[in-house]
Amino acid sequence: MEIFFLIIIIIILIDYSLKYNEKLKQENEYYKLKISEMLYNDTKQKLNKEIEEIYSFIETNKVGMIVTLNKEKNINYVSPLLKQILGYKEICASHDLNDYICEDDMVIKNQNLKLILEEQCKSFVMDIRILKNSGEYHWFECRFNKIDDQKDTDFLISFVDINERQIAKEKLIYSNELNESLLDSLEAKVAGFDDKYNVVVANHAMQKICENSSNYKIKISDIYMNDLIIKDKIDLILSNKVEKISFEHCVKKHNKEIWYKVDLTNNNEYGGIISYRDISKTKKLNDSLISSDLRYQKLIERLPCAVFLQDINGITYCNKEALKLLKMSDVSLVLGTPLIDFVHIDSKRSHVEKFLGTYTNTISAVEQVLVNVQGGLVDVEIDRTKAVVDGKMMDIYIVRDISEKLRAQEYKQSLIEKDRQLMETREYDRIRSEFFANISHELRTPINIISSAVQLIDSLDLDKVTDINNITKFNGIIRQNCSRLLRLVNNLIDITKIEAGFYNLKMELYNIVNVVEEITLSLVNYIESKGLSITFDTYIEECYAYCDIDSLERIMLNLLANAVKFTQHGGEIVVTIYKEDKEIVISVKDNGIGIPAEKRQVIFERFRQVDKTLDRKYEGSGIGLSLVKLLVELQNGTITVNSELNKGSDFQIMFPIMDSDLNEENVYNLNLKPDRVNMEFSDIYFEK
Q1: How far is CA 325 from CA 163, 283, 310, 395, 398, in A?
Q2: What radius of gyration, in Å, describes the C-alpha atoms of the chain?
Q3: Neighbour tally for 553: CB within 10 Å
Q4: Domain 505-680 homologous superfamily, CATH
Q5: Is the pTM of this model over 0.70?
Q6: Bridge partners for 212 per DSSP
Q7: Average pLDDT over residues 234-243
Q8: Would you state the pLDDT for residue 35?
Q9: CATH 3.30.450.20 placement within the chain
């Protein structure tokens, strides 16, 4: 029993041993294969690295850029330089090269590739366009080579960049085609010949005169049309004795004469070029021009104005009217003399500036003064143009005597001046009549009031208390109208002085804000007694300007008097001072009756009033604002008005601001006497 179990154990061990040996054998085979594969991959990597180094060497030496294809014709390797030229960051392996080749080149490429596959050749070369990343095509010269002893590579393609060469070639082809097209488009007959008298090229026009068929080869005798004179000229050109010959020649063909301008040019050692230009029409025109020259000359002679033709040497032609203008009888005295010699010395500079420059355009109606042979002055008007006459550039002067025209203009101008003077005289008479009517009214009104008051005083009883009160009232009326008369006379005298230049100002430096404030506040009680309110406002505390203090007081009193006069009971007057740029502005604004728009420009004129009627509601002479304007302007100021009818007026006075030294400042002491205020406000009457 023990032996049996021992045998079984031995059998099991033997079986296990056999299986273990088999497993070891399999593992040995597996590891052998792995080691073999690793060795192969390592060898392959080294080989690929060596191949890439070879490719890099080829590219570095500018032999070409390498692309390899595998057995499936897909890309296996791409040169980095090629990718850079095409603008691709990466061209993936396994991509089909056909995806990058222009379709127009595919047919030829496939035909050649088929020959290689059929083993009719080992390689071929062709120009191929490859698509760039930008969408454009780039030209390469490609050499396709079949590789038989490489496991992973079937084709090796060498790329050479020929893009610039191809572009230059296309431009050259286009240029040649263009030159041929231009040559054929010429009406002139053109042909080229070599030094052996062989015709090298002839354009269509030349072929037509040779009367050849398309298969006919043009001969040199066809080119010179069997004319010995033209042949002799060709011989001269080919003998290198002359470089260029131009001449006019008549050729008889089919009993018809044709005139040609023939140009022959030596083309150095290559031969020459001949061209024919048909000038038959030009010849006929020249003949007709010669005959018409006489007609034109006769026409110029009959023109009613002088005509001069002048070149660099002086006058070459003048008509009879020109001789008449210069008081000459012999044309030889004029020919060869520049026209400027007949120009008066006062007009010579303008003549040089206008006519003797490099200007080629036509110049018209330039007024000048000429001096005739007798020394007389002639006012003229000159037109000048340039033209080619007998092959020379000529100045053509057309000169017209405008003496009568100028006399007529002077007469017309004198009539206009007389009309203007007549209108001024009429306007002066109108203003004078209006002035006397206005002044008469202004004088009569206060005089009548004074006279009436005196008569009433004479009729009163001085012993009665009531009559004594009336006497006081009438004295006030007399005093006010005397002030009104005195104010009117003073204004008239001052305006006359200003216009005559005898009005004296005492210009001193003052704080304008203080002056205007003092004048305004001194009138508050008076203005409020008339049922109006007055306000003074300032945006600055100090502002200095040179002014005549008496004139400034007079200006302010006049403007405030106008504001009181034309503002209804309960109205408001506002006096404001502010700075604007380098000026100080004094504004006197009211909410009275305002001024119509059409009257704003005339209120500063003497004796002008908005209401001119003698029964007007508001009294006044119409010279107050004109005096204000004159006084303001005498002090380097300006005055303007903004007004709207029934809404009030705003008078603004602007004086230039001066930088002041406080040591020079004059202190303003208000010294407005009641009589002065009463005088300025004397033409204001309030109904009670």
Answers
A1: 77, 38, 17, 19, 12
A2: 58
A3: 23
A4: Histidine kinase-like ATPase, C-terminal domain (3.30.565.10)
A5: no
A6: none
A7: 84
A8: 47
A9: 64-162, 186-283, 303-401
